[in-house]
Amino acid sequence: MARNFFIQALLLFFTTLLSFVSAWDINNHNDRHGCQGYSQDPLEGCDRERTIFVDVVNPESKYKTVQSAVASLPNNTDTYIILIASGNYTEQVNVTRQGPTYLIGQTAHPTQQSYNTVNIIWAAIAIPGLDNAFTSTLTVAPNLNASLTGSGPTGFAVPAGTPFGCIDFRTYNLNFINDFAPYSDDPSLALSISYANGGFYYTGFYSYQDTVYVGKLGNAYIKDSEVAGETDFFYGFGTAWVESTSISLRSCGGGITAWKGTNTTFPNAYGIYIVGSNVHAANSSLNITGKCALGRPWNSQMRSIFAYTYLDKSILSTGFIDWNPSRYNNYTVQAEYKDYGPGYNVTGREVAKFDVQLTSEQWAKYSSPEKVFQYPDGKFGNTGWIDWSI
Ligand SMILES: *[C@@H]1O[C@H](CO)[C@@H](O)[C@H](O)[C@H]1NC(C)=O
Ligand SMILES: *[C@@H]1O[C@H](CO)[C@@H](O)[C@H](O)[C@H]1NC(C)=O
Ligand SMILES: *[C@@H]1O[C@H](CO)[C@@H](O)[C@H](O)[C@H]1NC(C)=O
Ligand SMILES: *[C@@H]1O[C@H](CO)[C@@H](O)[C@H](O)[C@H]1NC(C)=O
Ligand SMILES: *[C@@H]1O[C@H](CO)[C@@H](O)[C@H](O)[C@H]1NC(C)=O
Ligand SMILES: *[C@@H]1O[C@H](CO)[C@@H](O)[C@H](O)[C@H]1NC(C)=O
Ligand SMILES: *[C@@H]1O[C@H](CO)[C@@H](O)[C@H](O)[C@H]1NC(C)=O
Ligand SMILES: *[C@@H]1O[C@H](CO)[C@@H](O)[C@H](O)[C@H]1NC(C)=O
Ligand SMILES: *[C@@H]1O[C@H](CO)[C@@H](O)[C@H](O)[C@H]1NC(C)=O
């Protein structure tokens, strides 16, 4: 009897341990891929307690838009997952909640962005009197004020006391498209993230101008993804780390990057870091050889670094350029470290006036996400939201 009880207790202990060890984990490839795959019951392989299914095609589905699913989530610190069925969703998605929020797309190829089957599409351009924020396909910010770009060297003055938004927002296998016009005209954002931390994996962002906006206190980690644009298509005030990503040039305008630095009471690393990525013409019929600039200073304290990145022949022989009228000064950081490819013209870089080649000591200051992502108070190492398994 006692022995039977002991064995049963032992069994219970191990099953509990097993269920604990094997709790569904977004960072676990098998768990995530299992949920993203196709099956009769779309939630098979998902964490049923915390996952909402969105399907634009099935008329019976409770949620037909991504925004309706996002809006159903409580503003608390609990984790939620939204699984999105293959299809085109014509809508803007705004995420204001604080808790971990993961948007994942159905796919049979979860490790290849080019096979994504979910497109979230909007078409908007900034019009006079209306901030760029209103154009974005996806916005992650605690409220509208936090997401405003504003103008002038310091942009919109976000009111003091504005709370931080999502501490861990992520997308996997989704494309965000702003297809207002097939050329750059005015700001047309696909992503806007401010006062929030966001990880974007196997994700596509497509527009022509100001495609990816990383606003104030925004931290964006983009990996194994694709960003396509023409003019200043990575811009902002916050911090972006873009790794192993395809950067597709749809033409040349302004620069690939344009950032505004901020004077803080603490040291900051606000800026954009493009690392181990591939910069290339969108297709071979474009006539952009030697014409695209790596970036230009949106304000004098712009910080933009391309490191270990392949540059195709579209890139200007002298790399970065100045703004017109001139803003480049000795506070501006427009730099490269170990870039390569036909767009890395050694003699061009030697005569460049607005492009600096970093020494290994200089690069070491910025050489990992831990060194650049900060908490709102300036403390470095705000990386708990990064999926390191990718
Ligand atoms: C969410 O909750 C936080 C903390 O209570 C609060 O500061 C914030 O304004 C809330 N956001 C929304 C959109 O209600
Ligand atoms: C879905 O959107 C993509 C990207 O805009 C487009 O190429 C495709 O034709 C659309 N598919 C349908 C079924 O509308
Ligand atoms: C998202 O936010 C923008 C800017 O506030 C607003 O124009 C838009 O209507 C919002 N969309 C949704 C679906 O909440
Ligand atoms: C947004 O900012 C403006 C200008 O600072 C301010 O008047 C307004 O009260 C703010 N709105 C919210 C909801 O904080
Ligand atoms: C090449 O890319 C440009 C910019 O996106 C596009 O307008 C054009 O249609 C593309 N051409 C081909 C042949 O795909
Ligand atoms: C920050 O401080 C520097 C040095 O004082 C100054 O040149 C620059 O204009 C300031 N930038 C902003 C955005 O206030
Ligand atoms: C590219 O340039 C070539 C040679 O100048 C020209 O024949 C061709 O039409 C141009 N293509 C485009 C898309 O402008
Ligand atoms: C930056 O440039 C200003 C003049 O434009 C000069 O006075 C200052 O010494 C320079 N600072 C450094 C660190 O080179
Ligand atoms: C490399 O840059 C130099 C200096 O700007 C320029 O003269 C040369 O034509 C460039 N070479 C190529 C292949 O673009």
UniProtKB/TrEMBL annotation:
Q: Which SUPFAM superfamilies match?
A: Pectin lyase-like
Which biological pathway? Answer: Glycan metabolism; pectin degradation; 2-dehydro-3-deoxy-D-gluconate from pectin: step 1/5
Task: Tell me the first and last residues of the signal peptide.
Answer: 1-23
Q: Which InterPro entries match?
A: Pectin_lyas_fold, Pectin_lyase_fold/virulence, Pectinesterase_cat
**GO biological process annotations for this chain's record?**
cell wall modification; pectin catabolic process
Q: Which UniProt keywords apply?
A: Aspartyl esterase, Hydrolase, Signal
Q: Which residues cross the membrane?
A: none
- Every copy of the Pectinesterase catalytic domain together lies at 169-367
- What top-level class of enzyme does the UniProt entry assign? hydrolase
Q: Name one GO molecular function term.
A: pectinesterase activity
**E.C. number:** 3.1.1.11
Q: Which family does it belong to?
A: Belongs to the pectinesterase family.
Q: Know the name of this protein?
A: pectinesterase
